[in-house]
Amino acid sequence: MEPTRPTQQEQSGQPGPRYRVAVAGASGLIGSALARSLADDGHEVVRLVRRAPRARDEVRWDPARSEVDADGLAGCAAVVNLAGAGIGDHRWSDAYKRELRDSRVRGTETLARAVTALAEPPRVFLCGSAIGYYGDTGERAVDETAPPGEGFLPSMCVEWEAAAAPAHEAGIRTVLARTGLVVARGGGAWGRLFPLFKAGLGGRLGDGRQYWSFISLHDEVAALRHLLDATDLSGPVNLTAPHPRTNREVTAAMGRVLRRPTLFPAPAPALRLVLGEMAGDVLASQRVLPTRLEESGFTFAFPDIEEALRAALD
User: Fold this and answer.
1) Domain topology for 18-313
2) Does pTM surpass 0.85?
């Protein structure tokens, strides 16, 4: 379990309203942390599951068949969709790329249509997305005003976000959370990096000049909570720390935090051999700024990479 600092709501001393919220992807790294955070603050969390429900807080859905138990969504003030096959779980074969795309697009479209059919629709539909939308930006900093990039991930993100359109068109506040690389011990990219660096086998990837736009798991959850409550926010919002760092800088920070040498760089040709097409995204540079999130008043608890790393390991 990742360490947390008090939320902005807790710091204000105000308990805030309690509400019912449905979460798809509640078993994943981000979804489980969000569900735990909401439940700890007294909110009623409904978890969408692909099997027969085993608990009172579970609701059955089957995104592959575009099916969801709409009765289980009744009374929800918010519906959050964070479901999708893992980007780095497998080599990108044509079949797995279809699974990556379909698990996101079909799931989002299923929930978007379901919430519009409710007698009392939720106040907000919060849909996960990713900074993969922007493609390789090189050294150029981008925010939510930038167009999509080129390649598999940008095209997938475009379709993923477009699948939420029915909710937006029905007048439901629809937010697209474009998340960066989440710094966490228990999963995601850092779930694989930490063991390597702890063993003294870590190093830069490629030339190390590519930007990594990261966010601590604590700030990711706090930002999602912020988006649920920020009634004036809709559309795309970047969930990344305000200071993207190059892979070389991240590697150096990992060495300092873990007190390990970082002498084993992974050359680009070797990454392409091992990872296939996914290597292009590992080596790509994404310098993404959280402009709309900061303008809305959100404050990061761990804005720099070394702080985020220490928080994940504490």
Assistant:
1) Rossmann fold (3.40.50)
2) yes
